[in-house]
Amino acid sequence: MKRLLLVGGGHSHLAVLKALGDAPAPGDITLLSPHRYVVYSGMIPGLIAGHYHLEHCRVDLQGLASRAGARIFEDSAIRVDAARREVITAAGERLAYDLLSLDVGSAPGEPPAVAQQALRVRPVEAFLSGWHRLRESIARQEVRRVALVGGGAAGVEIVLAMQHATAGAAVEFALFSETRILAGHNRNAQRRLERILASHRVAVRARKKVVAVLDGGIELERGERVEAQATIWATGAGAPSWIAASGLATDPGGFIAVGDTLQSISHPEIFAAGDCATLIGGRGVKSGVIAVRQGPVLARNLVRALAGAAPESFHEPQRTLALISCGDRYAVASWDRFAVEGAWVWRWKDRIDRRFVERYRT
C-alpha cells in the first residue's frame, strides 16, 4: 500500500481531504500541519473588522482528516529528504512517503531588518494574536500611528479592516507601497481603492520602499524616517527557505517548480500547489483563487498516482476575479480591465466565502 503524505493545510489540500473523504482511495494517508484548524484567508479582513467570529472562518483539519481515513501530525516541516523519501519535522520526526504533496503556503517577503519589530501577516495564527494585542494597545492610547507595509490587495484590505475596527480611537493609519497600490490590478480598480482609502483617512505613501522597521518607526530607502508605534508587514509572498534547502527544483524566487500536472519537475513523486509552487510556463500569480482551482486537479492526480494511472493537466486561468473588502460592508470587484464597487459586492463576497468554509465542515 502506497504512503501518501500531505504537508500543509492550504486551500488545495482542503479539496484533497474532502475528495478522499467522499471517495476513499487505497493508500496510507498522513496529514502534517502545525495547527488543527486552518483559517480561510479570504475572511481574515472581515474577521479583523468584526464582521465574523473566528469559528465562521476556520476549518477543522482533524475532522477532514478523520473523514478521509488519514492520520494527522500537528507539527511543521523543516526539510524534505528526497533521496530517502522522508519529511523531517520541527520536532525531529521523519515521516516516510511514496507520494508527497506540499501545500504549505508562503513566507512573508521581508528584509532581515524587519524580523524583530514588525507584525507580519504570515503565519495567520501569530498575526491574529498580534492584532488582538495591538488593538488593546490602541484602546489604551499607547499607539498613535500604525504603518502598514504592502500595497497589494491583502495590505489594502487589512489596513481598511483595522481602520474600521478602531473607528473612534485616536490612531492614524498609513499605507506604504513600493509601487502604485494594487499594481497587479486594472487602473479602474486602483482609482476606486485610492479614493476609498482617502475617504477612510488612510494616508497612502506610494512608491516608497521601506528598508527597516525601527523601535518607534520605519526607515525608507533614502534614509527618511517615519514615526509609527506599530508596523504591519504585508508585502508579497516569499518562498519558505527549507524548500530550496531540500534540493527540489525551484523558480528564481525559491518556489517549487511544477509542471502542468502539479508535479515537481525534478521529483515526479512530489506534488505541490498553492503559494509554495510556481507553474512553469504560467503567469506566476500567487493567489487563493489559483490555489482553490488547483485543489480538485491535485486531488484527482494524487488518487491517480496512488492507482498507478497517468495524471491530468491543470489549466491556469488567464483572468481571475478579485473581490477586495473595504473595512465596512463594502467591496470592490476587479476583473481584467473592469471594476465595480458597492455593498452588493461585499454581500457577493460574503456568500462566496461562507460557502467555501461550509463546504469543508464535517
CATH class of the largest domain: Alpha Beta
* Total DSSP E strands: 25
Total domain count: 2
Specify the structural class.
alpha/beta
The general outline is globular
Distance between the termini: 27 Å
Summed up, the helix count is 10
* CATH T-level topology of the largest domain: FAD/NAD(P)-binding domain
Largest sheet: 5 strands, parallel
> Strand order, biggest sheet?
5-2-1-9-21
Q: What's the average pLDDT?
A: 94
Which residue ranges are poorly predicted, with pLDDT under 50 across at least 5 consecutive positions?
none
Q: What percent of residues adopt helix (DSSP H or I)?
A: 25-40%
Describe the protein:
With 362 residues, the protein is an alpha/beta fold. The chain is 31% helix and 28% strand. The chain is built from ten helices and 25 strands. A five-stranded parallel β-sheet has the order 5-2-1-9-21, covered by helices on one side. A five-stranded parallel β-sheet has the order 11-18-12-13-14. Strands 6-7-8 form a three-stranded antiparallel β-sheet. Helix 1 crosses helix 9. The longest helix is centred in the C-terminal third of the chain and has 20 residues, at 288-307. The chain is globular, with a radius of gyration of 21 Å. The two termini are 27 Å apart.
Features:
362 residues; alpha/beta; FAD/NAD(P)-binding domain; 2 domains; 5-stranded parallel β-sheet; 10 helices; 25 strands
